[in-house]
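Researcher: Please predict.
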Amino acid sequence: MTKAEHADLIARARAAAQRALGLPIASLPPPAGAAIEPGAAFVTWKRAGRLRGCIGSVEPYRPLAEDVESNAVAALLHDPRFPPATAKDYPQLSVEISVLTPREPIAGPDDLTIGRHGVWVDHGRRRAILLPQVAPEWGWNAQELLTQVCLKAGLPGDAWTTGKGIYRFEAEVFGEE
């Protein structure tokens, strides 16, 4: 994606959030380029560099612009780890967008490059995802990343050793910080 496409998606995330919070918004041109193609993205809101909300899609099922807008609002208002943001909170928030590539199955830690790959575990009703930027932020190696995604899904930390239901993906990450 181009820098202009990045800027457009950031503006769309912000406009959707402003609309949801009842704040005035600037009009935006219709989406174009990569934004009209099906895409899956996570939107992360941060306050003073700390996580404030993060929600996204793992499979592309709608245009990327629509996915970003919807996930921007969901991350701001519906992330169960945080109370809903308010109009008063909004000026202190920065946004980061992670556009995901299709997932591919992996056997274990040797199939991961820290900082490049995110992981997704899907064991029946237990699912979780960790974006590529998470492992470097926490100082995890590949095995720790796999253990943490399993724990996040409510599975035993070694559930990844079965070699089933474990996937990697990459993400194009951009934002305001």
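Model: The two ends are 18 Å apart (CA to CA).
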